[in-house]
TrEMBL record:
GO terms for molecular function: FAD binding; oxidoreductase activity. Belongs to the oxygen-dependent FAD-linked oxidoreductase family. Keywords: FAD, Flavoprotein, Glycoprotein, Nucleotide-binding, Oxidoreductase, Signal. It comes from Punica granatum (Pomegranate). Residues 14-220 form the FAD-binding PCMH-type domain. Pfam families: BBE, FAD_binding_4. This is FAD-binding PCMH-type domain-containing protein. Residues 1-26 form the signal peptide. Coiled coil: none annotated. The lineage of its organism: Eukaryota, Viridiplantae, Streptophyta, Embryophyta, Tracheophyta. It comes from the Eukaryota. The keyword ATP-binding does not apply. The keyword Manganese does not apply.
Amino acid sequence: MKASRGEGFVLVQFFVFLASVLSVSCSLLVDPAELLLHCLRDYFPKPYPLSGIVYLRNSSSFQPVVQSYARNSRFMSLSNLNPSAVIVAKNEVHVKGTIICSKKISLEIRIRSGGHDSEGLSYVSKLYYAIANATKTYAFPAGVCTTMGAGGHFSGGGYGNLMRKYGLSVDNIIDAKIVNAKGEILDRKSMGEDLFWAIRGGGGASFGVILSWKIKLVLIPEQVTGFSVSKTLEQGATALVGKWQQVADAIDDDLFIRVQISTANGTQRGTKTVQVNFIALFLGQTRRLLSLMSESFPELGLQEKDCIEMSWVESVLFYSRMPNGTSIDFLLQRDLNTKVYFKRKSDFVKEPIPKEGLEAVWEKVIEAGDVWMSWNPFGGMMARVNESDTPFPHRAGIKFMVQYGASWLAQNATKTKLDQIEAIYDAMAPYVSKSPREAFLNYRDLDIGVNSDSKFFKAEVYGSKYFKNNFGRLVRVKAAVDPDNFFKNEQSIPTLSYN
């Protein structure tokens, strides 16, 4: 990784997940996984052994491997995760061979990177750690959740708290390597600009297996500043959110102020209220930040004691609510024993929500109890990139993006939690984008449409929400590079021939 030119190579670890049989002749007496194993033995040369790579259902390691990177407990039972085999690919040959052999015996594959897909359709933040150890003055504009995999995050249009200054991850990718449906390994030059365009925000899993990304690092100061200030309704949170809506997308590009909305205990015993947390990253030092806030958002009352100066990589830990001084080694940790169930949804807001609208939403937040929202301001670079430059179309005219979240620990609470998050989503309907009601691919949401039988008209329902006018171009790219629709899932890009 050469930070001196703001460029670097990132080799993304890939994980190929073989799902249930798509079409295997019923006359076969051999388990399709055994056929796969036989094919792989013939295909893989001797320098690439299968030991520790291929896991069949009769292996004692099968269940732990299947569940190891599944972040959402809603999809961790083997009744939901029902693959014929799991391939833990360690090099390009493993990926290429798996694709060729799966096609040969009619097995469907699913590709898993970090296991973060909110609806479980895909199944270690080493990138930031590597950058931080190489340079103090360069960074990469992507997410702040430390357990994401770069493969899916980048290809879905991943964003983070540098987006107002530098845009999305996909705005800063300069090359990639992908294995296509023919088992060919392609870079930007050999795949062509159409496919390179499609995988930068259109979801790589519809087009192939992403092996690696070449990314452009961005310049940052050695010291950045963060703050986190919380206010309840009783402390004037509604008026502060109203002002935030006016300034957050228009303030200096160096300043990103996220609003996180949740419930808290009220001032009277046994009551609940809404708490709003204003959490920010500023690409500069405290003195200039205070001057900007005094000029643009004095109502928040930000003070020097609220501000923490740190390196950029430490700000990732700050956004993850880790204690000040936590070692960046934390970025290499990954708890594989997750027991959390969760659901995510998304929206885009183009006009400020009026006071009466906020108050109506607050009522639903209090009723729901454990559902939260994260409002992320746009403007800056997000408004300067044309919506057709990448498949991610939510650019100029968007004030902020909404993430809805619910997490719980017990399976029997699932329906209640899903109903609660839906109630808040419904309450927000009058105030978000319409025709279509836009959505963010990386906050995967099967509620907005499912295409289990590869029909174009079904895919168009969710495709128009995720990609707007870019959906048509994505379909044309899909038809050109994967006409047999080998790479598919419940919300993948279809081909026109599947009607």
